[in-house]
């Protein structure tokens, strides 16, 4: 019942968000029909567009999971960006120098990239255990360190001399990950991680402890949960997911090398997706796909219509804001209506 | 009529009906008791009168005029003030500063401490409230701080003073003093609403009594000797329930918990929170801890279960020194029902099942290597729901949807089913209705029958006297007396709590 209702509310909120955004399109003197037509055409309209949407979504699924798993456990990991960058850099550098058969090297590179992200998150875990430092601030600050450290490594020691911008050399061609019917294998890896996260959160006892910690940390502590180790584990796992996202983007993206700005906004998009998804695992998948669709479709909007790319970003924000607002608005509206009905029964 | 509340209904979204067509009135210069079980709607009705929440339906009249009380500020302007159960004072300020806070006497924009202190002192004298206006507020007892709250309202010239369960945390002696003060206030023309569920107190001091039950008004009666406690109780609960706990005589077994010279020093100010505490609990024995709140009971429990490390001393359970064990390991010896069930005992947003399997989840059969066995969890949850008569739709319902009594049953069911030899109960019946209270008291005595060692902390002296085999009295972090409830009177316990000789 509550599942049906929340799905219904989500659909209603999405429709309403597009209506609100349409007003701004009109204000911009463009036709909403044309703009949304282009969005659909490039985001979902054909197999080509659809597979592109899936390919755009895989890093978002992983950074979204990274945030969701942390937040649902009451661990405020905001370091997705830094963990992502380390995953990408380590994978990109090893991808140049490592010499192994590709069937072994590709999964190995992905896992090592994930571990690099986990190690970076592990720093925050260490600070927390040793010095009681709040991971909220440490993960956030570590983002800046990661940003400049990876940039330094890509600009000096590992710079591709032929590149115009700070970038590492192209990874070995046989390490490029393939795609199946145009869908990147990385997308299926992300799907697998969705299942793994679900299994962790709902089937394992550590996952149970982590979720209880997220509901009420004192309750979990007094109940005898292994709070300290649970927190560390969640931070490491969360970091692994972000690092994996970075590594897969190198292996299966379009550039196959670490360049300045490769992290784009994947980290913060992940945090946003987790918040939209209420830290639910499958909801995270859904909203990551939704944001992927918007991003991919936005390319079409820019291409086909007169709206500039800045406006596309603006529209995206409007849609996300309205969606979240409407969803909670609808929830309190139903509560209010139920209350009215109860009162009606009472006073006739 | 000074105040008339007519046909008040309140629905909390989405569907909690708190008040159904309640009429309530106040006459000038009366003490009007509002009684009912927890969840009967007393607080809701008084929050409406003091402007904290708005009614969904109905109207309020003062002196025949219809009024809208949209906020506590409006209520104050109309002369209505409420003293809440949780006192909201600034601990570091002096008493008079707390009283005038918000509308300070000032000249040229400067605060006038001398004048303030003077005004407050006169006010206290006029109404016969015995409190040192220059004392630092946090150094006062609960009773003292309550007087500050009352002064605060008087300073704002309220005519109608609402006292929400004011005697809940007071000793018998302090309650008596409060009643004298209430009489003096009434004699000086103030109207008092006395919210309580202690029927003997209600009968002793009130002029009229209104009984609420499940959001409905049952009656308003004049307290002129025509009604007694049993009748009131029946109106409150609906059926005849008497709190009886029949304790069989039995001899205690071997010691289960032995605490030796336990001390805890506050590192920030060097204050001794626990000072050389010695106590023993035997198998098959209920040991009570009495004391005015804030005299080290909370700290004692925290140190016992392992939330805080003691500064010195030792804790022994079943002959094993557990002083250096962390909370997680200690939990294999101790079952614990915390005082604050909403913030410590439960995860309100988690399901009933998830709450019931906590701590059980650490061991087989629930835990299987990495996994949690869902079918065992379900089995355990359904069994506990049945055995402990937890009223719910399914084990997958969120705990926050349950009533207070059923929430507490979830905690107690979980802890008792852990089957530990030592059970620590901290205020297990606070805030529960009569039926749930009786149920819990029976559970405590059953634990005693099954040869468990029970340590019971309670602010309810009657409860301690009824259930305990021995009572330790705590004051300023020390155990100041060990009493046998069969041979001493409640007032004697009170004297020890206050530290005055009988």
Automatic annotation (TrEMBL), chain A:
Pfam families: BPD_transp_2 (PF02653). One of its GO terms (molecular function) is transmembrane transporter activity. One of its GO terms (cellular component) is plasma membrane. The chain crosses the membrane at residues 7-27, 47-72, 84-100, 106-127, 139-159, 179-202, 233-251, 271-290. The keyword Protein biosynthesis does not apply. It comes from the Bacteria. It is found in: Cell membrane. Keywords: Cell membrane, Membrane, Transmembrane, Transmembrane helix. Its main location: membrane. This is ABC transporter permease. It is a multi-pass membrane protein.
């Amino acid at each position: 019942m509550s599942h049906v209702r929340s799905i219904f509310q989500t659909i209603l909120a999405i429709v309403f968000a597009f209506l609100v955004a349409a007003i701004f399109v009109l204000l911009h003197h463009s036709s909403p029909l044309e703009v949304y037509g282009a969005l659909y055409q490039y985001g979902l309209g054909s197999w080509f567009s659809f597979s592109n949407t899936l390919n755009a979504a895989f890093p978002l699924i992983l950074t979204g999971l990274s945030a969701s798993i942390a937040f649902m456990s009451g661990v405020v990991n905001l370091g997705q960006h830094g963990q992502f960058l380390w995953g990408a850099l380590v994978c990109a550098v090893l991808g140049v120098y490592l010499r192994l058969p590709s069937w072994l090297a590709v999964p190995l590179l992905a896992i090592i990239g994930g571990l690099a992200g986990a190690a970076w998150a592990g720093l925050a875990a260490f600070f927390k255990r040793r010095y009681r430092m709040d991971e909220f601030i440490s993960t956030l600050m570590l983002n800046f360190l990661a940003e400049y450290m990876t940039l330094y490594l890509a600009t000096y020691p590992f710079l591709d001399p032929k590149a115009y911008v700070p970038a590492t050399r192209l990874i070995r061609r046989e390490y490029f990950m393939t795609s199946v019917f145009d869908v990147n294998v990385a997308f299926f890896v992300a799907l697998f991680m969705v299942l793994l996260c679900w299994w962790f959160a709902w089937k394992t006892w550590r996952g149970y402890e982590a979720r209880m910690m997220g509901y009420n940390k004192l309750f979990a502590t007094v109940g005898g949960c292994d709070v300290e180790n649970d927190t560390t584990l969640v931070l490491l796992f969360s970091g692994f997911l972000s690092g994996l996202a970075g590594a897969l983007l190198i292996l299966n993206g379009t550039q196959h090398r670490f360049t300045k700005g490769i992290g784009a906004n994947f980290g913060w998009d992940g945090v946003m997706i987790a918040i939209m998804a209420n830290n639910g695992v499958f909801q995270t998948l859904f909203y990551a796909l939704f944001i992927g669709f918007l991003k991919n479709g936005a390319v079409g909007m820019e291409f086909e219509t007169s709206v500039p790319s800045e406006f596309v970003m603006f529209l995206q924000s409007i849609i996300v804001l309205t969606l979240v607002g409407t969803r909670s608005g609808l929830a309190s509206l139903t509560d209010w209506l139920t209350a009215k009905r109860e009162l009606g029964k009472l006073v006739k | 009529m000074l105040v008339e509340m007519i046909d008040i209904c309140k629905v909390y979204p989405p569907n909690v009906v708190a008040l159904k067509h309640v009429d309530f009135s106040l006459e000038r210069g009366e003490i009007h008791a509002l009684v009912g079980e927890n969840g009967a709607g007393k607080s809701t009705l008084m929050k409406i009168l003091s402007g904290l929440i708005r009614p969904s339906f109905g109207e309020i009249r003062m002196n025949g005029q219809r009024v809208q009380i949209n906020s506590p500020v409006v209520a104050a302007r109309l002369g209505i003030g409420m003293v809440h159960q949780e006192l909201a004072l600034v601990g570091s300020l002096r008493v008079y500063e707390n009283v005038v806070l918000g509308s300070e006497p000032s000249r040229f924009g400067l605060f006038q401490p001398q004048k303030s202190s003077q005004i407050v002192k006169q006010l206290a004298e006029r109404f016969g409230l015995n409190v040192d206006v220059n004392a630092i507020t946090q150094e006062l007892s609960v009773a003292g701080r309550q007087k500050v709250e009352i002064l605060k309202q008087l300073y704002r010239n309220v005519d109608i003073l609402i006292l929400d369960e004011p005697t809940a945390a007071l000793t018998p002696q302090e309650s008596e003093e409060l009643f004298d003060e209430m009489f003096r206030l009434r004699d000086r023309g103030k109207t008092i609403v006395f919210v309580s569920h202690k029927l003997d107190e209600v009968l002793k001091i009130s002029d009229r009594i209104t009984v609420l039950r499940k959001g409905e008004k049952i009656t308003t009666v004049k307290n002129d000797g025509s009604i007694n406690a049993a009748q009131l109780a029946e109106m409150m609960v609906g059926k005849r329930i008497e709190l009886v706990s029949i304790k069989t005589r039995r001899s205690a077994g071997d010691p289960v918990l032995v605490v030796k010279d336990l001390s805890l020093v506050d590192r920030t100010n060097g204050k001794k929170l626990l000072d050389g505490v010695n106590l023993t609990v035997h198998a098959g024995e209920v040991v009570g801890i009495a004391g005015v709140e804030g005299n080290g009971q909370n700290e004692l429990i925290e140190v016992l279960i392992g939330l805080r490390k003691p500064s010195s001393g030792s804790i022994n359970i079943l002959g094993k020194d557990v002083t250096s064990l962390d909370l997680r390991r200690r939990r294999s010896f101790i079952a614990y029902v915390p005082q604050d069930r909403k913030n410590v005992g439960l995860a309100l947003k988690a399901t009933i099942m998830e709450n019931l399997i906590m701590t059980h989840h650490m061991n087989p059969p629930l835990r299987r290597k990495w996994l949690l066995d869902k079918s065992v969890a379900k089995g355990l949850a359904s069994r506990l729901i049945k055995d402990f008569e937890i009223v719910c739709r399914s084990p997958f319902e969120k705990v926050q949807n349950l009533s207070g009594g059923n929430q507490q049953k979830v905690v107690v069911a979980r802890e008792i089913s852990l089957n530990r030899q030592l059970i620590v109960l901290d205020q297990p019946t606070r805030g529960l209705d009569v039926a749930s209270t009786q149920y819990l008291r029976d559970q405590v005595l059953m634990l005693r029958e099954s040869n468990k060692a029970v340590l019971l902390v309670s602010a309810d002296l009657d409860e301690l006297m009824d259930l305990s085999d021995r009572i330790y009295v705590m004051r300023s972090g020390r155990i100041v007396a060990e009493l046998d409830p069969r041979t001493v009177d409640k007032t004697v316990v009170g004297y020890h709590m206050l530290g005055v000789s009988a």
